[in-house]
């Protein structure tokens, strides 16, 4: 396994967890322990949510009988590498509250749960990689989740970093910690326009 150098530099003094976390595509097939999996979902559990609604639902598989079904929801570009990871899951956001009223922040809150899981993985020496490249209609149909009640947000994998040299050339070139736009590109103080 080739070691990847992380040259990320923050412009303000932030905790290292923000710059050290990155999304590899090189995953080892080394299984995760039940304790590691429990810690990932426990971190997601404590994510903030509007009115403590906790609107996320996660379905996942490791090496069980449904793994091929989970793999088949990925688009082909992600199947090239993500099927190597020992844990594959999907985040769904509930669309409405129990009383039927819309849950306007459900997708935002579900994103918080994903980020909590991703940071926990990083702090455990694992890698988490979120994916928008999924077949959304298949996510409902194949995973048994109601499209009337939930919105599929993303797929994700978690595992130990694998061999950089095992990746295809086009993926190898992209498997590095990437940079970010400056804060000024996305943050404005005061009224815009």
Task: For the structure shown, list the relevant keywords.
NADH Oxidase, alpha+beta, 4-stranded antiparallel sheet
Structure explained in plain terms:
There is one protein chain. The chain has helices at 16-20, 34-45, 67-72, 76-82, 106-123, 136-143, 169-172; strands spanning 56-61, 87-94, 127-131, 150-159. It has 193 residues and is an alpha+beta fold. 31% of the residues lie in helices and 15% in strands. The mean pLDDT is 90. Strands 1-2-4-3 form a four-stranded antiparallel beta sheet, sandwiched between helices. The protein has one domain (25-175): NADH Oxidase (3-Layer(aba) Sandwich).
List the helices and strands and how they pair.
Elements: H1 16-20, H2 34-45, E1 56-61, H3 67-72, H4 76-82, E2 87-94, H5 106-123, E3 127-131, H6 136-143, E4 150-159, H7 169-172
Antiparallel strand pairs: 1-2, 2-4, 3-4
Helix pairs in contact: 2-5
Order of adjacent strands in the largest pleated sheet? 1-2-4-3
CATH domain fold name: NADH Oxidase
* Strand elements, count: 4
Number of DSSP helices? 7
Mean pLDDT: 90
Report the span from N to C terminus.
50 Å
Oligomer: single chain
Tell me the number of structural domains.
Answer: 1
Top-tier CATH class: Alpha Beta
């Amino acid at each position: 396994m080739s070691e990847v150098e992380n040259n990320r530099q923050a412009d303000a003094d932030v905790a290292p967890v923000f710059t050290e976390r990155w999304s590899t595509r090189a995953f080892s097939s080394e299984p995760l322990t039940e304790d590691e999996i429990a810690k990932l979902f426990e971190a997601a559990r404590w994510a903030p949510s509007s009115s403590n609604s906790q609107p996320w639902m996660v379905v996942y598989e490791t090496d069980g009988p449904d793994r091929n079904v989970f793999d088949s929801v990925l688009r082909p570009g992600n199947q090239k590498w993500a099927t190597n990871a020992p844990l594959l899951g999907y985040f769904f956001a509930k669309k409405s509250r129990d009383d039927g009223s819309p849950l306007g922040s459900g997708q935002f809150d579900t994103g918080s749960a994903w980020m909590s899981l991703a940071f926990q993985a990083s702090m455990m020496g694992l890698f988490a990689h979120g994916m928008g490249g999924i077949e959304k209609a298949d996510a409902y149909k194949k995973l048994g989740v109601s499209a009337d009640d939930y919105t599929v947000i993303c797929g994700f994998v978690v595992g130990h970093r694998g061999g950089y040299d095992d990746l295809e050339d086009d993926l190898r070139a992209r498997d590095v910690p990437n940079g970010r736009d400056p804060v000024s590109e996305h943050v404005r103080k005061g009224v815009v326009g």
